[in-house]
Amino acid sequence: MWLKSRVAKKEGNEIEPKPVIFNADDIFSFEEIVNVLENLTDKENQLATHEDVYFFRYKKPLKLRVILYKTDDFNKKEFDNAKARINKKANKELGISQKVRLFESGKMMRYNIIYTGKTNDELCQFISQNANRNLTRGEGIINIVFAGNEIMIPPLYGECDQLEISRYKDVIKFANQVLLCE
Question: Is 62 exposed, middle or buried (0-12, 13-18, 19+ CB in 10 A)?
Fold first, then answer.
C-alpha cells in the first residue's frame, strides 16, 4: 500500500482538493469489510438494513460509530437518506443519546464508509471536500470510500489545530490497521 496523490494542489490562487488514495494489493469484497467490522464489536452494537447499510458502535479506545454503505452508483441524496435511516434506527434500538458532555465529545468519531465498484463525478466531488470542517465538530466525522482496490479519504489542507491533525492520523491508522489488516 502507498499514498498515491498529494492532498491538495494549488493552481493560481485557487486550491483544488484531491482525495488521498491508498492502493491495496488485494481487492476487497463488501462481505470481507463487513466481517472485519463485525469482528471488532459485540453483536448488540451492530445493526443492518436490507439495503446494504450497516451500523457499528465501538466504545474503546474511542467512542467510534461506523456506517458502512454499499452502492453501485453513488448519489449523495440517496446516501444521506440511508445514513439518516440507519442513524435513527441505531439511536432507537441501541439507546444512543444525542446529549454528550463537551469533554466526552472530543473522544467521539464517526466514519462513513462508502463501498462502490466504481467512482463517479459526484462521489469524487463529495470525497474531495476538505476534511477540516468535519473534524472540528464535537463528534468528528470523516468519509472513507472503497472503490475497487483503492481507499480514498478527503484531503486535509490549510491551517489545522492539534485535534484535527490527531483525528486525521486516527483515520489513517484505522484504514491501515483495521481495514487493510496491516
Answer: middle
**Most distant CA pair in the chain: distance in Å?**
52
Residue 135: closest CA among 117, 114, 115, 108: 108
Using one digit for the tens of pLDDT, what is the confidence trace for 97-106?
666 565 566 6
Check residue 106 and report its DSSP letter: T
Q: What is the pLDDT of residues 138-156, one digit of tens each?
A: 777 889 998 888 888 888 7
Q: Are 155 and 20 in contact (CB under 8 A)?
A: yes
3-state secondary structure of 75: coil
DSSP letters for 39-72: HTS-GGGEEE-TTSEEEEEE-SSSEEEEEEEEES
pLDDT of 2 above 60:
no
